[in-house]
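Many introductory courses stop at the sequence. We go one step further.
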Amino acid sequence: MTMRINNRGFIQLPLLLIILAGIAIIGGGSYFAVKEVKKAPAENHNQQTSIQPQQNTSSTAEQNIKQDVSVIPKPTAQTQSQQQSQPNQPKQQIQPTQTSNTQQSQPTQTAPTQTTPTPQPPQSSENQTQSTLFKVSITLGTQNVDETTARIEWTTSEQTESKLYLSGGGLSSQQHDSQNGYATTHAIMLSNLQSATDYSFQITATGNNGFVDYTGNFKTKTPAPTLELLPTDGSKIALESTGNKLTWTSTYTKSCTASGDWSDSKATSGEYPLSYSQVGNYTYALNCVGDNGKSISKSISINVIDTKPKITFYFNGNAANTYTTNIGSGARMSWEVQYSYGGSCTASGDWNGAKSSNSNQDFVWGAEGNFNYTLTCVNGSTGQQGANTASVTVTQ
């Protein structure tokens, strides 16, 4: 069929309407609204009529559709590309495409637009690190804590390189490497710790799937109390000696109480002067309560003795400090010294010179009168002195 085009480049209006009606019947009911076709001025004979699909975005378009609607089939992408590539071709070269039955059943509805997911930018290294933090886990095992040592054990969900950083007791993040190396079971032995001290630690484990940190703490044990009491049990102290004292020291204790030959509360460490007026055995007991609640007690016994040298005289074998004889008679005077402990003896009075601590001497008296024999001895251990005098009376 031959179409006539007027001298202005447009198909006559009656003929155009007939063609459009036939196309609508063949297309199965897919309708699109176009604006009223108007004759263009002569100088714009190359301009094509713009065909717009029905849209719901403008109230003006709806009014135009009600006023003057021309129904044409929806152009395909190929037709649109041909229109763009051949702008000077007459309008009749545009071929309509038959639409599906689904499109015919809903001629006035606009198909929903499918949203294409927007691609997400790749995660930063920080986000990737955070996302992998929970892929490695640490399970704390046994903690064997003593007074100055602690053994910390832990396991990881995969093989890791683990380190422990210790703080407390004067330490700040002191690094300790796991003694098992790259493994799932780990342990560290900590030594030279302070007793009764709080410590904190951080474990860092790094594996193929990331890393994880674990924090914990422990307190070293408080040692059992100790107590030392001096002088030692069974010591001997000289009567009337001076400068003697009882001393005691304790550790990890909070209070002490005395009993026996002394009493009342005592400091956890201190000293107590000792002074005696008579010989005998004296007992001193001390009980101290430790910081850990346990108690410790000590008790000593002191034997107080008279350590001044004691001198005993004998005349002809008889112990006596006095002796009576006649002129021209003789007698053996001997002496015995106790508590000399290697000390020396010196004679004075009617005799003189150094004397042995245990010895004797023979005398003959040629004149009547009273004679005095004094012997002074020194204790070689304490320096105490002792003296005694033997008196002899000589008559006719």
